[in-house]
């Protein structure tokens, strides 16, 4: 796993948000992998207990809690970017981007996310666990 951390300052907030990227090699085709990020059934396999979609709005359910996100951008078999509804007013988002090496054809998943400075390491560990679950589900 390759980790790049970039500090991103939000001028309207007391806590600074830190943008970070995680890169995971995954042995799967981009089209198959994309379905796990862009469809409710795919997201339910590894990310949330239940997922509903209505247009660009997605509802994620974990136990008794619900979070909503909006799809900001989508490019089939390449990337999808979400913004949590609760993060209105800031520029944070989370994105899944599939990258294929031109020479080796190796597939990598790049996750971009934001967290408060004192929660970055915890967020990275959460993503690591989530991606481990995804790899287990797809046999990668």
What keyword list fits this structure?
140 residues; alpha+beta; 8-stranded antiparallel beta sheet; 3 helices; 8 strands; 25% helix; disordered N terminus
Please give a structural write-up.
This protein is an alpha+beta fold. It has one domain (2-138): START domain (Alpha-D-Glucose-1,6-Bisphosphate, Chain A, domain 4), CATH 3.30.530.20. It is built from 3 helices and 8 strands; from the N terminus they run ββααββββββα. The chain is globular. It starts with a strand and ends with a helix. Residues 3-14 have low confidence and may be disordered. Helices cover 25% and strands 44% of the residues. It has helices spanning 30-38, 40-46, 120-138; strands at 2-8, 17-25, 50-54, 57-62, 65-75, 79-84, 94-100, 107-116. The relative contact order is 0.22. β5 (65-75) and β6 (79-84) form a beta hairpin.
Which geometry do the CA atoms define? globular
Helix content: 25-40%
Approximate strand percentage: 35-45%
CATH architectural designation: 2-Layer Sandwich
CATH superfamily: START domain
What is the radius of gyration computed over CA atoms, rounded to a whole number of angstroms? Answer: 15 Å
Strand order of the largest sheet: 1-2-8-7-6-5-4-3
User: CATH class, please?
Assistant: Alpha Beta
What is the number of E strands?
8
**Overall structural domain count:** 1
Main beta sheet: strand number and arrangement? Answer: 8 strands, antiparallel
- Mean of all residue-level pLDDT scores: 88
User: For the terminal residues, how far apart are their CA atoms?
Assistant: 14 Å
| Total DSSP helices | 3
Poorly predicted segments? 3-14
CATH topology, which one?
Answer: Alpha-D-Glucose-1,6-Bisphosphate, Chain A, domain 4
H and E string: EEHHEEEEEEH
**Category by helix and strand content:** alpha+beta
